[in-house]
Amino acid sequence: MLKGQFRAWLMVAALGSAGAANGAEAAKPAAEAAAVVNAAPKAVQPAVQPAVQPAVQPAVQPAVQPAKQVPVTDGKVGAGGTVVEIKTSEGVIKVELADKAAPVSVKNFLAYVGDKFYDGTLFHRVIDTFMIQGGGYVIEGDKLSEKATKAAIINEAKNGLKNDRGTLAMARTSDPNSATAQFFINLVNNDRLNAPNPDGHGYAVFGKVLEGMDVVDKIAKAKTGLRFGMSDVPTADIKLLGVTVVKAASH
Question: What are the φ/ψ torsions at residue 84 (nearest 5 degrees)?
């Protein structure tokens, strides 16, 4: 699995390097898009070590993200959808799902919730001012292991929902229809992830944070580094303790 996803990451990295002549401002969006395209942690050095990937990760981080974080989106994402609580080692995050706009993604997510699949999994990739990602890996001994998942689902990124701050979206590989269990929470308005960006397909939003954005921001500030041979992994474990449905959809 990791070998295939690493190959997919390299394909995106190659596309990013073609635009390197345009400067750091052009290279950064491709690099950050690649961070989410590869749903598993990358077995490469982090961005602070430019000698490893000079063409993809510029030595100086350009200011491509908004300097000021914007409020969590209003009620348009869920609008009466199923409400779940994500209990983490850092606190509780209450989320409203977009049952009507993203029915396949929501049904898939709730199936994993019903199986208690997320219990004990990690937020294994954290990139401040971008997103936090989790829901697929557990620690087994001295390695990070990916849990076996159900079949992949179709990409619902063209449902009109945007990757705004506080929204949840499905993680995937370079294959647009490869999402399974992993998801991420946007820390800022990541317009570059909205369909048809960044690869002609986009990333499917299926919910939004109602309460607990302070918990999300706390996780975002966690110290990360190279761990288990993978980058952007928190140096101290941040776990999903469990996900429960607290309110059924009202439509």
Answer: -125, 155
pTM score > 0.85 for this model?
Answer: no
**Angle at which helices 2-18 and 24-37 cross, to 10°:** 160
Cis before 198 (ω within 30): yes
Q: Which region holds residue 64: left if phi is over 0, alpha if psi is between -120 and 50, else beta? A: alpha
For residue 134, give every residue at least 6 positions away whose Cβ sits within 8 Å of its Cβ, in sequence order, or none: 121, 122, 123, 124, 125, 182, 183, 184, 238, 240
Domain boundaries, the chain: 77-247
- CB-based contact 94:85 (threshold 8 Å): yes
Is 2.40.100.10 the CATH number for 77-247? yes
Residues 6+ apart with CB under 8 A from 191: 162, 163, 197
Task: Return phi, psi of residue 158, to 5°.
Answer: -95, 25
Q: Is 211 left (phi over 0), alpha (psi -120 to 50) or beta?
A: beta
- Helices (H) and strands (E) counted in the chain, each on its own, are 4, 12
Choose between 150 and 14: higher pLDDT.
Answer: 150
| Three-state SS at 183 | strand
Question: pLDDT (tens digit, 9 = 90+) per residue, 67-117?
Answer: 344 444 444 555 699 999 999 999 999 999 999 999 999 999 999 999 999
Note whether 189 and 162 are within 8 A (CB): yes
Q: Which helix (H) or strand (E) holds 15?
A: helix 2-18
